[in-house]
Structures are given as C-alpha cells and as structure tokens.
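ugh ok fine here u go
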Amino acid sequence: MEARRLESAPRLPNFQILLRIRHPSMDPALISRELRLEPEHSFMAGEKRKPLSAVSSSPAYGESFWLGTLYPVEWPLRPAEWQPAEWRKPRMAADEGPVWGAWAQRAHDVMARDLGAALGMCAVHLGRHASFLRRIQADEGEVNLRIELYSGAISSFALAPQNARTLGELGLALEFEFVER
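structure:
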C-alpha cells in the first residue's frame, strides 16, 4: 500500500458551527423538516426527562430544544438545492464531470479554513428559512449560532456586511467559544 502525500490528507475544520433553538412547545421534528437538518440533540416540551439522579428538579422538560451542527464545509459538495445561487454554475453536461468535482472541492477547502465564508454560507441557508425562524422568535423562542473556535487554529476572520446583515435581520445571536482540540 502506497502512503498518501501529507498535503492530500483531508484538513480538519478550524471551527464548528452549531444552531441552537429553544421554543415553548414546538416539536423538534418540525424544526428538522423545516430546516432540512438533523439535530444531534433534541427534546420536546412536556417529554419526560431521563433521570440523572434520584432527586430531579422536574419530571418533564419545560420547553422544546433542538441543537444541530451546521456543515457549510460539506454544502458545496451537496446537490444544487443546498447551494446558494451565487455558488451555482449554469447547468451543463460538464457540471456532472471532473470540472464540477474540482470546483466543489475548492469550495469545500475554502469553507474548511475560512470562518467568514462558512458563516456566509450559514447566513444564506438560514436566510431561506427566515419566516420559520421569525415564527420561532414570535412564539417567544430563541435561535442562536454558537461558533466553537479551536485554539490556535484561527487568528482572525471577516464577515461580509451582507452576511452580517442577514444574520442580524434573522435575529440570530452569535456566541463564540474557544475550545481545545
């Protein structure tokens, strides 16, 4: 077996972006369907808690909760409906071949190391669901983006004004946490 060259090894992302939604009563399955994303953790208001100890403060959850990781690094490699219009090329026979694959791989590599570009992709994806996110907030729910930055991996990033505006218009709080790998 021949060893792979080091530079061709896949790069780990320098960050992780999580979407957290809290709502007084919304079914997490509805959130998943609307956003076309699967949660890593969710529960519904009124659902029985799993006992952590003999003494539990409440037998049921008081609100619904949905937490999922956003993978903008993978979105350029997904079908066209996941991609924002500015990332799509006109449909041609070549789009399905090696040229399209090389273009998608370059976009993937940019997303893996450029937090600003990744947040821009998240803004575009979440912007498509603006009315749903506003409905959550109108029902006294909350929607947050949590960005976990791996220590030493990123020294700075820039968020384009249009993406910052989109996230602001969506009412999304951005939370940054520096974590060890």
